[in-house]
Design a protein that fits this description.
By secondary structure, the chain is α+β, with helices and mostly antiparallel strands. Helix content is 42%, strand content 16%. The strands form 2 sheets. Strands 3-8-4-5-6-7 form a 6-stranded antiparallel β-sheet. The protein is flat and about 65 Å long. About 13% of the residues have low confidence.
């Protein structure tokens, strides 16, 4: 009898923990929502989202309808002695880093005072803060990516090509120009979309990689990539045009299928 009671207690506790792990909230479908975007935002897989809502593959989300999204309870962690020691060490490291940066700034100012600055073209002007903290390097790298990519304009599109005989597919072009500029990124577009710093569409800068879902039914995942070159345009290896071209991001086809952007030149 005692054993049966113990088993019942274990079953009750297991059921309670399972219930806590699968708590859900409702999400109202908005225009532009896809299974990919909802799953990505909530840090779950598309398969898990389908399973919870009993959705079949190919199901189209209707605006205004609601679906369930799992949530996980936040667990408060107690501060341990080890964590306190780590925090103290972090503060000391930060102070040392700050002191080092101040020394670098003072040395840079000293060097500038000791030399006469020659005239430079407008396009090559940059601030002292840009040199010290990397903003100048970032913009230069972005321009170098674009410069090399433009040299490949008109080159033939070949699926799976990464520069062999000057042929490329979309992610082959981006991985090629990045590699030539000392930036290592994954080979496939969907993997490239998870690399580097996330950038919103309104904050795009030349050299950023931009990603699309160009599938006919908009399945919700990335399958195409290009390089933003400014003025709302991007360069990419187009399977439709069978070559490397420059396209406007204002074109409805690409504007509506834009997913996200990543900054790798930093």
């Amino acid at each position: 009898m005692k054993r049966i009671s113990t088993l019942l207690l274990m079953f009750t506790l297991g059921t309670a923990s399972l219930s806590a792990a699968t708590k859900t909230v409702t999400h109202k479908i908005k225009k532009g929502d896809t299974l990919y975007s909802i799953a990505h935002k909530n840090h779950i897989t598309i398969a898990k989202l389908r399973e919870i809502n009993h959705l079949k593959k190919g199901t189209v989300l209707k605006v205004g309808k609601t679906i369930k999204v799992p949530t996980t309870p936040k667990i408060k962690k107690k501060t341990t002695t080890l964590a306190k020691k780590s925090k103290k060490h972090s503060i000391k490291t930060h102070k040392a880093s700050k002191h080092h940066t101040e020394k670098r700034l003072a040395q840079a100012l000293k060097n500038i005072k000791s030399k006469k600055v020659s005239k430079v073209k407008k396009s090559n002007k940059f601030a002292l803060s840009d040199i010290l903290f990397g903003k100048y390097d970032s913009s230069v790298k972005g321009k170098k990516l674009i410069k090399l990519a433009k040299k490949k304009l008109g080159r033939r599109y070949v699926w799976g090509a990464t520069g062999q005989k000057n042929t490329f597919d979309c992610s082959g072009l981006t991985s090629y120009v990045c590699k030539k500029n000392g930036i290592k990124i994954p080979r496939r577009a969907i993997e490239q979309s998870k690399y580097g710093k996330y950038v919103s569409r309104k904050n795009l800068k030349p050299g950023d990689l931009i990603f699309f879902d160009t599938s006919k039914r908009r399945k919700g995942y990335v399958n195409h990539v290009g390089i933003y070159i400014g003025n709302n345009k991007f360069i990419h290896a187009s399977s439709a045009k069978k070559k490397v071209i420059i396209t406007s991001l204002n074109k409805p086809f690409y504007s509506q299928r834009f997913k996200l952007a990543r900054r790798v030149a930093s």
